[in-house]
Design a protein that fits this description.
two-stranded parallel sheet
Length: about 170
Amino acid sequence: MKRTSVLFFSSVFFFITVFTAVSVSAAPGVGVVNLQKVLDKSSAGVAAKKKMEAKMKEFKASLDKEKEAVLALQKDMQKKADAWNEETKKEKALELQRKKRDFRVKQDDANLEMRTLQEKHLAPIMKELETIVEEVAKKKGVAVIMPNTAVLYFDKTVDMTDEVTAALNKKMK
């Protein structure tokens, strides 16, 4: 009787071990996506990037003019400071401070507008990406898809960047 119970428990243990190993190996895996590459290569990402770059060039041209004016006034003050009386020096120093402050304000405004523009153009793409990543994960039988920046190492076989990019291009035509 002791032998049959040992044999029975050994058999049960064997089947539990085998089924656990099979279920673990059949468990869905992990995928990786390079989001920056998706944005850089997808048609929607390229279009958004072009719009933002155009606005950035516009801001840069405007800010460069302001910066040149500040630098010109600063050079003028250095050259002519010896010839000016104290009141003129104070007036020019105040003018320089105002120009510097105005430049910083315009710079901050440009940065804020660029962040707003980025959010306006990239938010819809990112929202669509959430859905697409979920669809690709289900299609591939993957339980988790992570951004490649959160992973120290991954095999190229788990990289789903190209599939996600193709799906995004198809969906956002």
